[in-house]
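REQUEST FORM: STRUCTURE PREDICTION
Request ID: SP-0412
Submitted by: Lab K.M.
Chain count: 1
Length (residues): 318
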Amino acid sequence: MQVDSGLLSSLYTDRLQKLRERAEGCGIPKSGSVEVLRAKLICEEVLPDLDLSWAGIQAMPHKETGDVLKVFGVKSSGSHKERRQRLWLHLNYDSRRLTIERLAEMGRDDLHELCKRLELDLTGNRTVLMGRVAGVLTSQVNGWGRIKRSLRRNGLQSPIFDAPQAEEADEITVVEPVRDVDFQAMPTKAVIEDARDSLVLGIDEQTAPVQGDLLTIQARVEDLERMVGTILRGHGGVWGQAEKEVLLRLAGRRGWPLDEQFVRHRVLMVATNIAEVKGAAMDASSIRAEISEDTESTIERIRSKLVKVESLIPDDDA
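STATUS: Completed
RESULT:
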C-alpha cells in the first residue's frame, strides 16, 4: 500500500480548526469531533480510491485490513473479524458517543443494525442484542475512535510502509518460499471463530442447498484449518491457485459438499484468510483471479435480482 506520508503526518498533528478548514476545502461536512474529521479526511485525501463501505471492508484480505488500520493511526492487531469491526466502528462512529452507557438508549432496530454491521448473531430481544454489542465495544476499547497518542504529538517519524520494489516485466509475481514457520501450529481461538463466522456470512441471502452446504462445512472448520496448514507445509509456505486446487481435491475426497460455485468460492476465500494469518507467501496472480471471480459472482447476483424485480412489475400492455 502506498500513501502520502507527509500529508498523513500533517493530518495526525493538525488541530480541529485546521481540520475543519481542510474539510471545507474538500467539500465534506466539517461537523464532528477532531477524530471524526480526521478519519473523514484520511478517507478523502489519503485513501480516495479505496472502497471503505461495509461491503468493501468485508472484501478486504486480512493483511490489507491491518494496513488500512495503520493508516488511520489506530490499533491494527487482532483477528480478521476484529480488524473489520474496528475499522467499521472507526469510520462510522464517534467513540465518545457510542459507549456502553449509550446502548441503553437505543431501540431494538438500531441495535439489530449494529449487530448486523459487527457480524454478530441477530436473534434475541433488545437486551440480548445490547449485550452482544457491549461485548464488542468492551473488547475493542481504546482500539478505535482516536489515533495513537504518539502520532497526535509527533506525527509520522518514518514511512508506515516500505518503499515498493520495482515491478517485474512479467505480470506474475514470483513468490519466495517462507521458511522457519510452523504452519501446523495450534490455531488461536480467534482464527477458528473468524473462519467459522466468515463461512456463513450473508447466508440468509443464499438458496437452501447453499445454506445447508455452508453449515455442513462450518462444522468442519477445524479440518479446513488443518488442511491449509498441511498444504502450506508441503508447498514451501506458498499459497496460490495450485494450492487452492489441492485443497478442493482434498475436501472433495472427504465428502465435502462443493458442487455449488458459491460454496467453493466461499471456502477458498476463508482458506486464503487462514493461510494469510499463518504467514503464507501469497501469490499475487492468484489473488487477482480471486477478486475477478468475486466480481463476476456479484454481477451475476445483481442480474438475478434485476430479473426478479422486472417480473414483479405489471405489464401495462397486458
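NOTES: The mean pLDDT is 82.
Reviewed by: T.R.
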